[in-house]
Amino acid sequence: MGEGEPIIILHGLLGASDNWLTIGKQLAEAHMVYLLDMRNHGRSPHSEEFHYAIMAADVNEFMLDHEIRSAILIGHSMGGKVAMHLVLDYPHKISKLVVVDIAPKTYPLPYFKNIIETLINVDLSGIKRRKEVDEQIAPNIPDSGERNFLLKNLVRNRGNTFSWKVNLTALLDNVDNLSGEIYREEIFSNPALFIRGGNSNYVLDEDIPLIQSRFSQVEIVTILDAGHWLHVDAPEKFLEALTAFMKTNR
Fold this sequence. Notes:
Radius of gyration: 18 Å
Number of helices: 10
Helix content: 25-40%
Strand content: 15-25%
CATH topology of the largest domain: Rossmann fold
CATH architecture of the largest domain: 3-Layer(aba) Sandwich
Largest sheet: 6 strands, parallel
Number of strands: 8
Structural class: alpha/beta
Shape: globular
């Protein structure tokens, strides 16, 4: 682990901290890196409460528990909205902000709702291999790369049975909470980097004025030939953009 300023990384919806292991290890050469599982994901506790304010409070509590007075905060997709919420609530705790392929605007979420419902409707009884689950979800989720990502949430139990480690019921019950705009009258004045994928439609050119109105020292970088999961599609270019931003002293 490095001895530089701490970095906290927040994953996206239906992701987990281990999605960021490769990037985290490289950043750890110069920083103390913390990869967090958001509530209802990974190894974190399950809860019926699931919205940005409470997830931001979770991260703040983590910082208090680990005596982290200041950190660089990186958030992808849902994690990016949590990060935006956190820096607008506790701006003194975040020296630099990195938001990956998400804007503070409202997003319609029928696509993610369909994914969650697809996973909930999988019949896990009698399943012996992951491939059987993959075959069940393929009609609704045709992209094999996306299915592989989602199947990381599938765990094999004792007795050779399977279950989901993500709390799908809580996610479905609260999916509307994830679509809203992140808004505060306050403006985050520390350095911020928004990285978007050239093949993604999450952050459009028309969203840039909104981002600039909330983050006064913002830089926006587009990584061509990368989709929503930039750190997977183009890890070298993504890390290059990150490290360049870390070195800035604005």
